[in-house]
Amino acid sequence: MHLPEYEVTAITDVRLNSGVKEYLVKWKGHAVSTWQPRNDLDNCAAVVKTFEEVRMLGLMQKHSVVCSLIVSSLCSFFKPL
């Protein structure tokens, strides 16, 4: 039995659900997004990869800003004598 396939237009979020990584998938022609396990997204590996790359860049930028704020705060707290 062949199950129908639907086209993914975007992945908008990721979560862990009972230890399983799931992606919030926006489907072409459908208004409702659904959470799908990674194993069910083999046919759109490029979309998953792009989402993960963009997500990692965002996390690195966020981490960089937080580190800059911490260093800046520490520098103003520990002024040379």
Explain what the structure shows.
This protein is α+β, with helices and mostly antiparallel strands and 81 residues long. The protein has a single domain (8-77), classed as Beta Barrel (OB fold (Dihydrolipoamide Acetyltransferase, E2P)), CATH 2.40.50. 41% of the residues lie in helices and 27% in strands. It has one helix and three strands, in the order βββα. It has one helix at 45-77; strands spanning 8-17, 20-27, 34-37. A three-stranded antiparallel beta sheet has the order 1-2-3, with helices on one face. The longest helix has 33 residues, at 45-77. The radius of gyration is 20 Å and the shape is globular. The N and C termini lie far apart (77 Å). Residues 69-80 have low confidence and may be disordered.
